[in-house]
Amino acid sequence: xxxTLREGRQxxxxxxRTSVIAAGFGQNIILTTVTTFILVYLLxxxxxxxxxxxxVTAIVAAAKVFDAICDPLMGSIIDRTSSRWGKMRxxxxxxxxxxxxxxxxxxxxxxxxxxxKLAFFGASFFAWGLAYTACDVPYWGLIGxxxxxxxxxxxxxxxxxxxxxISLGLATLGMPWFARLLSGGDTTALGWTLAVGIxxxxxxxxxxxxxxxxxxxxxxxxxxxxxxxxxxTTLAGNRPLLLVLAGSVLGFGRYIVQAG
Length: 260
What we know:
Layout: H1 3-6, H2 13-44, H3 50-79, H4 89-106, H5 114-146, H6 150-183, H7 189-207, H8 209-212, H9 228-236, H10 239-250, H11 253-259
């Protein structure tokens, strides 16, 4: 009997579809909040100077390069994973809480001297990137495993994208208002910390549905695993993928413009 079947009753296709879409909705609230508001928070509420923002830019650029390496590496780690929950779902289960906590930490920079603030942010941002990779890569892999039929899988991805757009709008429009509400008047750094913390834990709560209400398709016996050597050799020779990764790194520049 496979590990998938040992977990008990198989969830219906409708339950799996709804849970995966809800998980993407919650995850995207966090991603939108961080990418849209982190620089504004650092400038206005953490009181990072213009010179300090140059350091922040370097930290984020380095983290983006690091993430570009970690994404395929995470895929290879998942490929080598074997558990009673499958390959992807264990990472979905255990990454939710770290992502929520680290997202809150990004918006909770202590009132320390600026070098200490930058060190705190840098450590938190790198840790957040690692945790987010550990939740994002298996999430998209799970969609392919839980929905092997192409038509159904495409419908699920379309739903994830559609509700991702809704969560983007809600986070972009709602987070400043929510932070102001929790500040009790003019928006404060504490108001942002509370607003982001509530949104992050709620979002990761929705994300956890992808663990509880899905099942992976059993992997065929004898299927070859991708080695790290082959992985990085293939990556180094894949020019289109390298250009995509470079574009992701350089695309951060628009957030600098937005903050300005």
